Predict the structure.
Amino acid sequence: MQYRQLLSVLEENADPKYREFHKRLLKNDKLNVIGVRIPILRRIAKQFNEDVDKLMSFPDEYYEVTFIKLTAVSNLKYEDFVLYVGKCVSLIDNWATCDCFTPKCIEKHKDDFLPYVYGFSDNDGEFYQRFALTSLLHYYVKEKYLSIIFDLVEKSDTGHYYVHMATAWLIAEVLVKYFDYGIKFLQLNTLDVKTHNKAIQKANESFRLSDEQKKLLKEIKR
């Protein structure tokens, strides 16, 4: 499929009402959005499983094209995926594309992928850091990796809104799965006040914590 053919397929599947709704959610006026729903984008991406290089050469004029690129790359085997991941992360300019970039191959290669997580975390870019944090959220909330999570969230530039929110989301997930470790970390007060309190808020919104745990969290709100 050539680029113009891809655009034609996207236009054929466009939903004007969804376009306006999704564009408001993305909160990025610079994005050109056609208005194609995510399940359709994922089906289209599968058509490029054997031709990722051609897909990656297409211009990033539209949100949907970039989304399809990242989805196609996320379908690759790990050895092939890592050849493209740096380019993919450089294309991310909104929270939705970032949060939907969840390559399943990382699950069986968590230790191998950690250097990439560190590298993206060290990058000044807002969505580089958010991708590092969401990768930790999706694959690394295990007791083995908690020290790494705490180390990286302390270094995160939470002055960026989407980094701030991802940090809070990640710590809230740690609290849900490893409450004792999570609350001890928060008691160190190493996060900025806004992110510290947002993590507590998000954890308290979970049905997976007990009333007693939520009470303890409220007591350490700053």
About this structure: The radius of gyration is 19 Å. Residues 52 and 72 are 7 Å apart (CA to CA). The chain has a mean pLDDT of 96. The chain is about 70% helix and 0% strand.
